Every structure is written in structure tokens, then in C-alpha cells.
Amino acid sequence: MKKVLISLLLSSVFAASSASALENTVKPEVTDLGITNPKTGLIVGNSYSFYNCGVHSYLRGLTREAKQSWKARILTMSSAMLSYHNVKDYLTPDKEMDPYAKSKPMFDVVFLQGQSNEPINAKRKATFQKYVALHADTIRKAGAVPILVATWARQDKPQDTRALADETIKAGNANHVMVLPVGLAFAESLKVRPDLIMHQEDKSHPSAAGSYLYGAMMYSVLFKKSPEGFKYQGGCEKPLKEADVKHLQSIAWKTVKEFYGW
């Protein structure tokens, strides 16, 4: 009887954790991409997007299995803030031998991923807001749709999750830009599976599981479809366990549905 009660208690705790609300207090105003089945994308960021052979490789693995027409370019700089990037140049189709220059527009969507604490750092916050606005305007003039990435808290500073999400959402709302809540998904994963490490040993960059979740979030938002059920387990010599993949796919879809109210 005692074992049964313990089992029921643990089940209740798991259910409560799984059903817990996302940690943001600011609601996103843009809840739809505005285009259906985008075919090309640009990912602008830093090492958070580049680790584990790049988040684009995880997204590519999912789109290939789905037989979804998609290709992407990733442009990253180490420790880069949004101000480091010349997005206008990235979107100018005048480079010799550039296959994307044949497309009009060059990219259907552009992801903007800033420095890890840029949205909440007292010295960097204003610059972050400035360049969200500037880059969003540049992206729209080039005919693409901007998506702002809300990154995750450091492993040893989980209390930053809410502030990072809220400040990124505020910047997105101010510029009518859709926000990809990757940091909220990291937090949700850790609530349910604290054993699945989402960070590298430096407590900052994503583990293979973190990059997989990031890619699954991208897939969910781009195509408004669940990544659940895909067999793809990641690449870069870091394939994940099947159970971990199922968990991350579920967390990605749960998070976007709750966040956008789908």
C-alpha cells in the first residue's frame, strides 16, 4: 500500500510539473508567422546557434525527414550582440556565385539571436532594443519575416529565465516581431527531466539536447506542425537517445502551443 501511495504521489508531481505554466509574464502579440511553408531561412547569431554543428543542422534533419522543402544559411560570430551584425549586407543579393541571390526574396524568414544576457544587461539592453528595431525594419524591407530568438538562462542562473523571456518579448512586441521562446522550452524540459542536461560544462552553451530542442522549436514555428514522432536523433556525432528525442519533441510542441495560444 505504501509503495502504491508513493507511486501515486510521484505521478501527481510529474503531472503538476508537466502542466505548469510557462515562466513568462509578458504575452506575445505576434502569434503567427504570417506565411505558410517558408522555403529559405537565415539564422543570425553567435555561438549559441553555432554549437553542436549548428542549430540549422538539427532543423535540417527534421525537415528532411518530413520531406519539407527547406534550406538555410547560418551567419554567426563568437559572443556577438545583435549590433555586431550587418544584416542589410547579409540580405543584399549582389554577391558572386551566391545561390540564395537567385531567390526573391533571398530568404523567407530571418532568425535574430542575440548575446546571452543582452536583453537584461543594464549596459546592453538599450542597444539590444535599438538593433531589434533596426534589423526588423531591414529584414522586412528585404521581403523577409523577422523572428527574434529568446535564449535560455545559464545553468547556474535559472532565475533569469523569466526576465530574459519577458524583455525579449517586449522588444518583439514593440516591433511586431514574432518571438521564438527557446529559453522557456529549456526551463520546461528541466522541470520534467532535470536529468537531461541542456547546457555544456560551461553552464552557458547548449548541449546536444539543447541544440535539438532549439531546432525542434524552429521547426514547430516555421511550419506550425508538431515535431513529435520524427526518428531523427541529431547529428554531429552526438545522436541522442530515443527517449530523450521524444521528450524534447514533446516539450517543443507543448511550449509553442501554450506560448502562442495555438
From TrEMBL:
SUPFAM superfamilies: SGNH hydrolase
Signal peptide: 1-21
Keywords from the UniProt entry: Hydrolase, Signal
GO MF annotation terms: hydrolase activity, acting on ester bonds
InterPro entries, alphabetized: SGNH_hydro_sf (IPR036514)
Superkingdom of source: Bacteria
The protein, known as: SGNH/GDSL hydrolase family protein
Lineage: Bacteria, Pseudomonadati, Pseudomonadota, Betaproteobacteria, Burkholderiales
